């Protein structure tokens, strides 16, 4: 039996079970919350909040405040010092790192039950994908493996970071997934970026049977594929000379025929490629067209909302948007008036901020993510990630949110970042990647973007009374590459770097401003 057949067999029953739950989201969520509380009633936080005596969702809401990371950071510090039962009764098995705290990095603890909750979401996703896109099982798969940017850490005896995405599927299913890989996991241990890229492309080009790609950022994949023409000779000769992979003369000719100058025929390179899974919402949405042009006739599927803290939604092939992962976390939703709703109470067309309660010890945790409700499957909402609720630029009362800026810049095709400039007279600067935007379009882009920003009445008023400078626009050579380098130098994994539309980092602003191209 092949690895793909074993995977199909393992995901079928839990996958079918998940979709049966969607008609009873209220009951599923209530039972899940009770299970989380009962598993953690003897933790330090469970005792202090009285988890044992809680009988209803209302009891939980009344005695558990809404929190952010800074509220639990000191408790996570205690876990690092060896006090394992602060947030949970279960032992912490791994920390995952993510950005966004005042210190720059957040450590998110995960228990075995927490990892199981993630599997409750990703296994139904894989089942649905195999059911509707069986072509993904016809060949090999590429799961994003970024170059290693730091040595594997341990905090006490708790590792920081799982070895690969396959680990999220559990040990047995993860081993089956590893068997399907076009690029072996050890490539992720390569620390030198050029060596990593060379080996990754060498393995990918060797596999004519590539049928499935799963990455996080679409720009990660676009940049990787765009580098093929520049390194073609090195890749092909490297494969032959070093024996990295077994390339036949016929395959070498196929590769050379598919790459003509900077033009890459991915259909010739990988004729069996069926599906690409990556971020396609919020700031990543503007790369859908470019990805579609690079991979014509390939099904593009978004990731849903998979936060480091917990899985919020998973994509389903029959819907444009992702369905809430009702058996993974307990969810609450906060509307624009700070009124809190449960998942079955949401209204189509409205936007909410997401609170999660997890098996790994986060209780009523404010993710800071905004989602738009687009419909329902049964009583379970379909949601689209809109952006970060907490990412706001406010120089003089205009309060530009990421979601608003994204909407106004959605027509721009290429890498573009809006940044506040807090000089003596403040204003905004629009940075454009010189590769994507010719100098002749600057005036038009600036005018259209400012018109869009003026849909915010406070911004329009500040411009009108000369409180804010009018929008300035600068082209920057290799803007996207500079942004990636800045993020990876700061410790972020290459595959996790998202293209921003609103950039509020003052250090990065200065670096980009110094690198602007003179008009």
Write a brief caption for the model.
With 519 residues, the chain is α+β, with helices and mostly antiparallel strands. The protein starts with a helix and ends in a 5-residue tail after the last helix.
How would you describe this protein?
With 519 residues, the protein is of the alpha+beta class. It folds into 3 domains: 3-111 and 312-388, no CATH class; 115-301, no CATH class; 392-514, GMP Synthetase, Chain A, domain 3, CATH 3.30.300. A 7-stranded antiparallel β-sheet has the order 13-14-19-18-17-15-16. The protein has a 4-stranded parallel β-sheet with strand order 3-6-9-10, with helices on one face. Strands 22-23-24 form a 3-stranded mixed β-sheet, with helices on both faces. Helix 1 crosses helix 6 (112-132), helix 1 (3-21) crosses helix 7 and helix 8 (193-206) packs across helix 10. The longest helix is centred in the first third of the chain and has 21 residues, at 112-132. The model has no long low-confidence stretch (mean pLDDT 90).
């Amino acid at each position: 039996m092949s690895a793909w057949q074993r995977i199909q067999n393992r995901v079928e029953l839990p996958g079918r079970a998940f979709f049966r739950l969607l008609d009873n989201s209220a009951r599923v969520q209530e039972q899940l919350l009770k299970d989380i509380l009962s598993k953690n009633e003897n933790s330090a936080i469970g005792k202090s909040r009285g988890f044992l005596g809680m009988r209803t969702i209302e009891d939980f809401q009344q005695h558990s405040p809404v929190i952010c990371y800074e509220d639990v950071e000191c408790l996570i510090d205690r876990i690092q010092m060896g006090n394992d039962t602060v947030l949970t009764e279960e032992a912490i098995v791994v920390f995952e790192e993510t950005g966004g705290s005042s210190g720059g990095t957040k450590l998110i603890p995960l228990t075995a039950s927490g990892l199981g909750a993630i599997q409750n979401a990703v296994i139904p996703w894989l089942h649905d994908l195999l059911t509707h896109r069986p072509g993904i099982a016809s060949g090999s798969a590429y799961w994003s493996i970024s170059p290693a940017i730091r040595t594997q850490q341990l905090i006490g005896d708790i590792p920081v970071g799982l070895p690969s995405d396959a680990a999220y599927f559990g040990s047995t299913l993860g081993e089956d997934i590893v068997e399907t890989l076009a690029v072996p996991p050890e490539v992720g241990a390569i620390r030198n970026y050029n060596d990593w890229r060379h080996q990754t492309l060498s393995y990918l080009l060797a596999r004519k049977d590539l049928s499935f790609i799963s990455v996080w950022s679409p720009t990660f994949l676009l940049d990787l594929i765009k580098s093929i023409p520049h390194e073609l000779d090195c890749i092909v000769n490297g494969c032959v000379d070093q024996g990295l992979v077994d390339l036949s003369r016929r395959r070498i000719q196929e590769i050379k025929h598919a790459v003509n100058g900077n033009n890459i025929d991915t259909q010739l390179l990988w004729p069996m490629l069926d599906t690409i899974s990556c971020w396609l919402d919020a700031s990543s949405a503007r790369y859908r067209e470019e990805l579609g042009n690079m991979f014509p006739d390939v099904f593009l599927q978004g990731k849903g909302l998979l936060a480091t803290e917990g899985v919020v939604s998973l994509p389903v092939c029959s819907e444009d948007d992702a369905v809430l992962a009702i058996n993974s976390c307990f969810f609450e939703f906060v509307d624009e008036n700070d009124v809190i709703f449960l998942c079955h109470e949401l209204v189509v067309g409205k936007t909410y901020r997401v609170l999660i309660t997890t098996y790994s010890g986060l209780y009523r945790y404010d993710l800071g993510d905004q989602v738009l409700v687009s419909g329902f499957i049964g009583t379970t909402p379909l949601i689209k990630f809109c952006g970060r609720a907490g990412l706001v630029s406010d120089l003089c009362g205009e309060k530009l949110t990421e979601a608003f800026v994204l909407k106004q810049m959605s027509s721009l095709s290429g890498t573009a970042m809006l940044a506040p400039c807090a000089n003596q007279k403040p204003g905004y600067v629009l940075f454009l990647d010189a590769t994507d935007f010719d100098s002749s379009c600057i005036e038009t882009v600036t005018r259209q973007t400012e018109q869009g920003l003026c849909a915010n009445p406070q911004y329009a008023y500040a411009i009108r009374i000369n409180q804010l400078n009018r929008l300035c626009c600068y082209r920057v050579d290799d803007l996207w590459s500079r942004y990636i380098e800045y993020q990876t130098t700061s410790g972020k994994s290459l595959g996790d770097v998202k293209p921003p539309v609103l950039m509020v980092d003052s250090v990065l602003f200065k670096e980009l401003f110094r690198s602007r191209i003179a008009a």
